[in-house]
């Protein structure tokens, strides 16, 4: 029975996955090379737990247990030494993910499943760098993890039925729905999101409508819960650009990144995390 999860990377996605796993009853080790990032993750978890108790989503004893379930470390070897499942949530850079997976393969228990939270990249290519490609899979969570109901589960070429089923069971225990996707660049959701968001950016650049009116049109006209430019700010424009560049390389011209997106990233306007993107976030 799977009881222990290690999450590698304590950024927005990593800390969200760790929080959700801890609340769901798993023992969780959250690892990052940055002590500053880990401190931010601790503050996030504490804040979210407190807010959930205040709103009645969790009982006080559930909050206390979740905090006991979570540990934080900069030591990758320490984080994964007893893990049944390791979820990698580092930047969307293939070389970085491969390097992390090599370390996970060397130090995680032989029975452990290795999952990548990639939103676009090939789990087959990542898994091929390990001695256990049958125990590798992609589990694509969505931001904010504790609120979003879906996990895309992407099977690599060598992923076993047992590994796939385990990923589905973990998603279910985290109170998520899952969909099984055959590996292809961008999977289902990222291909659609990137196209919609990129077209919204092109329309803004062409002067078709304002940021606010483009988002309002999509929310009220197409019933999306969030506008595409607002969503890009939430994801991070640097992350969106990396995704677009990968899909452009893999799938061709229709995924060419909008020049306005490139300009914003060069200017350091990365969205909510820097206080400015397509919108300004004074607070």
Automatic annotation (TrEMBL):
Keywords: Oxidoreductase. Gene3D superfamilies: N-(1-d-carboxylethyl)-l-norvaline Dehydrogenase, domain 2, NAD(P)-binding Rossmann-like Domain. The keyword Cell wall biogenesis/degradation does not apply. Signal peptide: none annotated. Pathway: Lipid metabolism; butanoate metabolism. It holds the Pfam family 3HCDH. Transmembrane segments: none annotated. Residues 4-183 form the 3-hydroxyacyl-CoA dehydrogenase NAD binding domain. Residues 186-281 form the 3-hydroxyacyl-CoA dehydrogenase C-terminal domain. The keyword Protein biosynthesis does not apply. Belongs to the 3-hydroxyacyl-CoA dehydrogenase family. This is 3-hydroxyacyl-CoA dehydrogenase.
């Amino acid at each position: 029975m799977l009881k222990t999860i290690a999450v590698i990377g304590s950024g927005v996605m990593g800390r969200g996955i760790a929080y959700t796993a801890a609340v769901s009853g798993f023992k969780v080790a959250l690892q990052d090379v940055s002590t500053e990032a880990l401190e931010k993750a601790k503050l996030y978890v504490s804040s979210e737990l407190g807010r959930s108790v205040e709103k009645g989503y969790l009982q006080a004893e559930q909050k206390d247990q979740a905090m006991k379930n979570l540990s934080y470390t900069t030591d990758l070897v320490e984080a994964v030494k007893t893990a049944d499942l390791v979820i990698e949530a580092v930047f969307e850079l293939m070389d970085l993910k491969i390097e992390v997976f090599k370390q996970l393969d060397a130090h995680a228990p032989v029975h452990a499943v290795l999952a990548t939270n990639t939103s676009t990249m090939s789990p087959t290519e990542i898994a091929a760098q390990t001695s256990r490609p049958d125990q590798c899979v992609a589990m694509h969570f969505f931001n904010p993890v504790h609120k979003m109901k879906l996990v895309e589960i992407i099977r690599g070429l060598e992923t076993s039925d047992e590994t796939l089923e385990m990923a589905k069971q973990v998603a279910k225990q985290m109170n998520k729905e899952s969909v099984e996707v055959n590996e292809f660049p961008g999977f289902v959701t990222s291909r659609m999101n990137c196209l919609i968001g990129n077209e919204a950016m092109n329309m803004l650049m062409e002067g078709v409508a304002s940021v606010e009116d483009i988002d309002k049109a999509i929310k009220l006209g197409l019933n999306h819960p969030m506008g595409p430019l607002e969503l890009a700010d939430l994801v991070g424009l640097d992350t969106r650009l990396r995704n677009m560049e990968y899909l452009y390389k893999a799938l061709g011209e229709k995924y060419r990144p909008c020049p306005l997106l490139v300009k914003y990233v060069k200017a350091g306007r990365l969205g909510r995390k820097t206080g400015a993107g397509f919108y300004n976030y004074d607070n």
